[in-house]
Design goal:
Number of domains: 3
Largest sheet: 5 strands, antiparallel
CATH architecture of the largest domain: Alpha-Beta Complex
Shape: globular
Number of helices: 17
Number of strands: 15
Length: about 475
């Protein structure tokens, strides 16, 4: 039995087998690990952002924690119990090695798992409550929360004040540039009652599925936030784990599932904000090296040292490996600065279909194709202007289609290249016949038409990458 110095022994003695209890501690809670269960008690604290000052308030917060977390993990959150007159949330215990921070640290986190997480989050966010409180997710609240970080960091890390000043100036400037986007996102219902603390340590693999747990219950304004801020915390944590490819993959999967491309202009602001939150928490712990690392990450995320955006398009018939090649680009990224738009997905979205839903074929008319490429061009331009590099995964069989995007890159002053994998016709047909669970509906008959329509790359497109 391991007892924290300031925790009353009576809580442990109230459990069935007090001699075999392990205690974990955070700055606001104790967690008693006992057999198949965990019991979470709240410390009697009153802080600027929470009030656990009375047993009645702690009991109400336990009830809120149970209710809110059952939205994500009903199998983990069981009931509120009393331990020696103190309320505690009783949870089903899980193997701590299945927490995503541990999974990621040992190199076992996969792109398939992150794709499932993205779908889970998008499904939850689509139906989560829109908070009625007008200050939640408002530009004023967003800026106030961001600036509060600097107030604390300047006190905790006086030696870092020059760098903090630069980051503070960037925060003011970026906020001013994106204020209209924050207003529009709140008006569009993108502020939802979510999780609020979605770092890797609050995600766990249960039965092979990534499941969020331990959401914020003590402060509604921390939880009722823009969905872009929610996913930004997970992305930031992946970057901190030096898994830029996995972060890029998760952002791609989240965007593909949600279609929330309006998140891209504000995403970098939220990433920097989350990095500064982590720097502040590390500073409170007295971990100066960790704080400095998060400040390094925040600086890099301001694009102060990032390369200029580029536009990449793909070229080739169905089955040639365009999506496979762009997948590899995403998963091997060395920083979070690239997004992808897939014609197969965006075509279906234009017609109100989910990525893997089957259509009746009517979405493949020449007019539908024209609308799809116009949509891809709009998405690419918006993302490039927000500082993101872009991959457009589409067939681009016609020279005119490729020229339009090449001209777009020239007009915006960005780099441009073409990713053009190749394979023999027989191999193309074999790959198409083997496809499962993919947004593409191409058949071998479609492939045969594409091979007739295909206009090969010209001599001036010789820079294309195979």
């Amino acid at each position: 039995m391991h007892i924290m110095p300031d925790m009353p022994l009576c809580y442990i003695q109230a459990l069935p087998d007090p001699d075999h209890v392990r205690v974990m501690e955070t700055h606001i809670s104790w967690v008693l690990l006992a057999g198949d269960f965990a019991y979470k008690l709240k410390k009697p604290l009153t802080l600027p952002f929470l009030d656990y000052g009375t047993v009645e308030k702690r009991r109400a917060c336990c009830a809120a924690e149970l209710h809110l977390n059952r939205r994500f993990a009903p199998e983990l959150y069981l009931e509120v119990v009393e331990l020696a007159g103190e309320p505690a949330v009783k949870m089903r215990r899980f193997d701590e090695e299945l927490r995503l921070d541990h999974v990621c640290a040992r190199g076992a986190l996969t792109t398939a798992q992150l794709s499932q997480l993205a779908r889970t989050l998008v499904a939850f966010q689509a139906t989560a409550a829109v908070p009625p409180e007008p200050t939640f997710g408002s530009p004023q609240t967003i800026l106030a929360d961001a600036l509060e970080n600097f107030t604390e960091l300047e006190r905790l890390l006086p030696a870092e004040r020059p760098r903090l000043s630069a980051l503070k100036n960037w925060t003011h400037s970026e906020f001013a540039a994106r204020q209209g986007d924050f207003v529009a996102r709140r008006a569009a219902g993108r502020v939802r009652d979510g999780h609020g603390d979605l770092h890797l340590g609050n995600l766990v693999l249960l039965d092979g599925q990534i499941t969020p747990f331990d959401c914020i219950e003590f402060n509604d304004s921390f939880r009722c936030i823009d969905v872009a801020s929610e996913i930004a915390f997970t992305l930031l944590d992946l970057l901190d784990h030096r898994e830029a490819g996995l972060a890029t993959w998760l952002l791609d999967a989240w965007l593909m599932a949600s279609g929330d491309f309006a998140a891209l202009p504000v995403m970098r602001f939220y990433l920097v904000y989350r990095a500064l939150v982590r720097a502040k928490v590390a500073g409170i712990r007295g971990d100066g090296a960790d704080s400095a690392g998060y400040l390094d990450l925040a600086h890099k995320l301001t694009v102060a040292v990032a390369p200029a955006p580029t536009l990449t398009i793909t070229h080739g018939p169905s089955g040639c490996g365009k999506t496979y090649a762009s997948n590899r680009r995403l998963a091997s990224a060395d920083f979070l600065d690239t997004v992808r738009f897939r014609s197969d997905v965006e075509r279906k979205r234009l017609f109100g279909l989910a990525p893997e839903a089957a259509s009746d074929g009517s979405i493949y008319t020449p007019d539908a194709t024209h609308r799809t490429y116009a949509r891809l061009a709009t998405l690419a331009e918006d993302a490039l202007q927000s500082g993101w590099s872009v991959i457009v995964d589409a067939a681009f069989l016609k020279r005119a289609e490729r020229d339009h995007f090449r001209d777009l890159a020239a007009r915006l002053g960005t780099g441009f290249d073409i990713l053009a994998p190749t394979a023999p016709p027989a191999e193309l047909a074999r790959r198409i016949e083997k496809r499962q669970n993919d947004a593409s509906e191409a058949t071998v008959a479609v492939l045969e038409q594409q091979l007739q329509w295909l206009e090969p790359l010209g001599p001036d497109e010789a820079f294309a990458q195979q």
